[in-house]
Amino acid sequence: MFERYQAGEQAVLVHLDFPDESSKEDLNEFKMLVSSAGVDALTVVTGKRNTPHPRFFVGSGKAEEIRDAVNLVGANVVLFNHSLTPSQEKNIEALCECRVVDRTTLILDIFAQRARTHEGKLQVELAQLRHMSSRLIRGWTHLERQKGGIGLRGPGETQLETDRRLLRERMVSIRKRLEKVEVQRQQGRRQRTRAELPTLSLVGYTNAGKSTLFNTLTQAEVYAADQLFATLDPTLRKIDLADVGRVILADTVGFIRHLPHDLVAAFKATLTETREAELLLHVVDISDDRRSENIEQVEYVLREIEAHDVPQLIICNKIDNLDDIEPRIDRDADGMPIRVWLSAQANIGTELLFQALAERLDIQVINHRLNIPAKEGKLRGELYKLNCVTNENYDDEGNCHLDVNLPSREWERLIATKYSELADYIE
Known about the structure:
Blueprint: E1 10-17, H1 27-36, E2 40-48, H2 60-73, E3 77-80, H3 86-96, E4 99-101, H4 103-114, H5 118-132, H6 159-194, E5 199-204, H7 210-218, E6 235-241, E7 245-251, H8 261-266, H9 272-275, E8 279-285, H10 291-304, E9 312-317, E10 328-331, E11 337-341, H11 350-360, E12 365-372, H12 377-385, E13 389-394, E14 400-407, H13 408-417
Parallel strand pairs: 1-2, 1-3, 3-4, 5-7, 5-8, 8-9, 9-11
Antiparallel strand pairs: 6-7, 10-11, 12-14, 13-14
Function: GTPase that associates with the 50S ribosomal subunit and may have a role during protein synthesis or ribosome biogenesis.
Subunit structure: Monomer. Associates with the 50S ribosomal subunit.
Domain Hflx-type G: 198-365
């Protein structure tokens, strides 16, 4: 049904420049997309137009140039750095006699290759079904000659009608399964709310370094690579930050210009972690020449998923790629941190991020010296689990004297849930 091409094919790339800023695409970014899809780009056909051609998207002369390029280099797929209509795809395929893939389908294919979790695979399939629903006719051109009349009427529904019905049924089935996943996510969020654990969500343009920063902060081993959409499936980790306490950190899929709307819609359940976070860590590749445009695109997607009102802390990442840039914290007129300059790859400036997080989350930290009886070994173990013990010694009677430094909410939680006598141990 999907006519999905296999990775490793030989491609001719097509890129046009338009005067309208909203229609412009980045050729270098497109080449990275192609590389991420595992496709070998043999040559690039470029051109300029004021508006897309209704039949070929490119002009008729440029379409013939594409056909000649395909024949010259022996390519078996043409990749457009633009979104095409079904009829435009069909016309170019007929002219070039090879597969034609537009930017939207290419991104969907990359997502299909990268999805690892059950939820991620369902979301990608749903996005593919939505996108392909308008292109089903391309798979059934042998039905175009069907006509009415005596002896020519087919029994029941046509193959195209059957295919559309099966597609709708599959979409309904996937939505129901995703609803079940969303219920599980809501239960997890309610548990974190009861435990009063703040959630931090990493967002940013694809390949900005979110997963590298995530691994640096959590000591996790999330896949991180210098390619677009290295992270697709969301990852959550519970971590202990100095002077902050225990928080939930979420790594999410990166955004991109003109991210297919079907993908945004399909991944809304996943991006709920972003909408309901206490703070967004907006990671920016500060060494990218188009960082301003990348920030604008991220803000656009955040508005689409209704997360634009969530407070943000800008992380200016990859300062090791620039000269004479030192790690620092930028503050607003009230002294509140608004930007942190660091390098996640080189682990430079991460301590400043911890400091900024403590200030932005407005965590009240308390310091106590506790005299814990020898029989309360479980309490001592609980305090060590919270990573809040700064000093420890014992007296002659075997009692444990601990200096602790932890958020007030963690202190109150211990008293309310397990150790009501905790305050009695304060020296």
